[in-house]
Amino acid sequence: MSTPNRVYLARLAGVAVFDPNGDQVGRVRDAVARMRATQRPPEVVGLVAEMPMRRRIFLSINRITSIDPDGVVLGSGTLNLRRFEKRPNELLVLQELLDRRVQVEGGQAGSVVDVAMECSRGGEWTLSRVAVRQHTGRLTRRGHLHQVDWDRVHGLGAVGDNRGTANLLAILEDLRPADLANALQDLPDARRNEVAAALDDERLADVLGELPEHDQVEILAALDRQRAADVLEEMEPDDAADLLNELSPPEQDVLLDLMEPDEADPVRQLLRYASGTAGSVMTSEPVILPPDATVAEALARIREPQLSPTVAAQVFVTRAPLTTPTGRYLGMVHFQRLLREPPADLLGGIVVNDIDPLRTSTPLPEITRRMATYDMVSMPVVDRNNRLVGAVTVDDVLDHSLPRDWRDRDPAFPSSATDDGTLDGDDE
């Protein structure tokens, strides 16, 4: 089943959704597009599917491998069954645009009968074309149907009571997480929580990691508990553990129980370690490969876009199992060494093991000293049985070595937002 470059969304209404095995899991009910501050057409971020018992859920466009009038096929059988809720900067295409009265540039008024989304070479889907039926003013005569580019149709802008939040989100959409965190700190508390709640789970998780602890806690507390658990699942386990450490033990238990078990387990493990030790600051998901993996396989692994630069800098080599806690730790290979070796060589032949790994109880000052001594970007952490349980990266060390309030905005710092929650300066 092939996916055409352009898909008319009204034709997808009611189309079956299949998992990778070909089993039907639901039916398409709408498409979700994200409005932008500029004149660029909205980005399509996913579809709304209706499951059994009339439950509607969100399907990310990135998890869909095929779209056509015969069916939508998912690339994974795992579904997030949280009930779909539209956010302020989002548009339900079929619900909000079909039958909308619009004006075609240089032409007459008409009504929207369909909207097409189109995929760019970079894989981004956007609303590209609009099918508009011209108004004739006669009850017995149907007007001509025109297909025109999105930017030639007037009257397709965002609607609803949250237009201010939608516009602000559109302005902030291209900011780095750290810059977006700074912008949120400039907003009044209520507006900050409103904007944060409107971000998708992955984006909010990235931003929370860049905020001071007190802001993290306040934003998380403003979410309903299931949404808070979903956001924690998107965070790195060490960041999620740091945030949960700011909450009371009963609240920690509630959120951990709401998380998927495979996401909650590494966070629970990190919460067991004493504060200020390697165990409490490490990431439990470094890059781990067996000794019989090739250099080419290691290079492919560290190219994965979701890996941070510090995590991708080193490959740790262990015996099976390869998830923490692993089998016996054998050593590590820096990415520069990988670049210098033949692609077919095995990691077991180039592994470095002349630097003693950290223990889970190693205190932060000792970690800092050893990383500085050996010019390390990350160091392995092992348990008493010499099993790899994680790695401490240089950004982990910096986060826990700086004063607790280092992320707080300095009042003297030039503000990017006014007191009423709008941004100053250029909107581009």
UniProtKB/TrEMBL annotation:
The keyword Phosphoprotein does not apply. Residues 403-428 are annotated as: Disordered. Residues 282-348, 351-409 form the CBS domain. Keywords: CBS domain. This is Mg/Co/Ni transporter MgtE. It comes from Micromonospora echinospora.
